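Posting here for the record, re: zinc ion.
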Amino acid sequence: MDGHAHLNMQRKPFSSHSPSFVAFGVLIAIAIFLGVTAPLSAFDGKRNRDDKPVQGASYSSFFEGKNQSLVSSGWSACEGEISWSVSSGSLGAKMFARELVRLQSAFDQWSKVTNLTFVYLGTIEMSYDPSSHQLSSDAMPTERHIAVAFMPAADSPLLTSNVYGFGMPATVLRSTKSIRTGEVIFKKELVESKSWRDPRVLDNLYLHELGHVLGLGHVNDKSQVMYPVIRKRTALGSGDQVGSLALTKKCADQ
Ligand SMILES: [Zn+2]
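Prediction output follows.
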């Protein structure tokens, strides 16, 4: 029907990989650049166009193959803390508290290797635009902030059956390749599902999506968190660590 890559969502399962845990792999690159109005095009969930594994590399940039001028974009470690807030998506209080701990632990892991400081602000009611995929709220900081939302699948066209979340840098300052804001959306039903006997899947998912927010893309290496199929990895791999540190802009670089 179309020849466009834009939001051409495929429902086809990732049959080339172990189905033991649900594959997801949508990596959308909708990013509104400061001072630039045109958003990046969205990419579909097909592995062959989305994943772009770099042979022999243990990490890749989120923008690899999408926008070469932004490859190597990352957060600055020299501008103070990065705040984050969560929209609970009406998850039950007990469940939300549990996931908050899990999220905090994922942030902590990334913080340890990047030296970035993440500070939890609290819950914020956010609205979501299903065409731009942007989360917004008047209560949300517009700089150095990561928005996290638990969202019913019905609310986002990207949360198809085998997609359990997506994350991305949301704004990037083009001149310095500095990521200014990021956002992550998790499928609410996944968190609520009783069929998930092993919570390590959620640990893996949270780490993975935050990795995208930090500027990492997928790698074709099952031992890394940035491998696009979620399993039960609860710790960052060596490539995840090296990559996130490499992308993070140190004070000396600036
Ligand atoms: Zn991904």
